[in-house]
Amino acid sequence: MANRLEGKRVAFLATHGVEQVELTEPWTAVESEGGTPELISLEEGEIQGFEHLDKADTFQVDKAIADANPDDYDGLVQPGGVANPDFLRTDEGAVRFTRAFFEAGKPVAEICHGPWMLVEADVVRGRRVTSWPSLQTDIRNAGGEWVDEEVVVENGLVTSRKPDDLPAFCDKLVEEICEGRHSEQARQTAGAAR
């Protein structure tokens, strides 16, 4: 079933310190299914990727967060690395951008330390998620149920723990973006906001 994502645009939200393989493998998965990935970051220019704690490649940003409209995308992917999501969650524009996908019921995929953004965007409450193990207390304190599993999918939200989980993570994010809008997810988010 090649080209399952034909005509779909997928936002990749990342900045300096991104775990390179957690950006490149999902990006390739989206492209190989005919989708169009776009790199959204805090500002224009390039971002520095890392292989754990070592500098790796740089990546050209397609659009600054201030110029990105969530309505233009069919899904959101946020890679991990320790620094990347920590920088992103302190930027109100990035937090609003992420929250908008939940409000619209669009698929979101977060891996490794990426779910820190879920905590910051206040969208983890009542959800079953996984992440890098050091985030479990933050997720639980924000009302989420943290589990130690390769990949967890719940109403359009895909989460995984680490680079070793990338094959399952990529399969599920493609599947969820292919399905599109998740009305149950949107209903839960709207109910929680009241």
What does this structure look like?
Strand 4 (46-51) and strand 5 form a beta hairpin. Helix content is 35%, strand content 25%. Helix 1 (20-32) crosses helix 6 (166-179). The chain has 194 residues and is of the alpha/beta class. The protein has 7 helices and 12 strands.
Quick structural overview:
This protein has 194 residues and is of the alpha/beta class. The chain has helices spanning 20-32, 83-88, 92-103, 116-120, 136-141, 166-179, 183-193; strands at residues 9-13, 18-19, 36-41, 46-51, 54-60, 63-64, 75-78, 108-111, 128-129, 145-146, 151-154, 157-160.
Any chance you could write out the topology, listing elements then pairs?
Blueprint: E1 9-13, E2 18-19, H1 20-32, E3 36-41, E4 46-51, E5 54-60, E6 63-64, E7 75-78, H2 83-88, H3 92-103, E8 108-111, H4 116-120, E9 128-129, H5 136-141, E10 145-146, E11 151-154, E12 157-160, H6 166-179, H7 183-193
Parallel strand pairs: 1-3, 1-7, 2-4, 3-6, 7-8, 8-12, 9-10
Antiparallel strand pairs: 4-5, 11-12
Distance between the termini: 40 Å
Question: What percent of residues adopt helix (DSSP H or I)?
Answer: 25-40%
The H/E string reads: EEHEEEEEHHEHEHEEEHH
Question: Uncertain spans, ≥5 residues at pLDDT below 50?
Answer: none
Summarize the biggest pleated sheet. 7 strands, mixed
- Gyration radius from CA atoms, angstroms: 15 Å
CATH class assignment: Alpha Beta
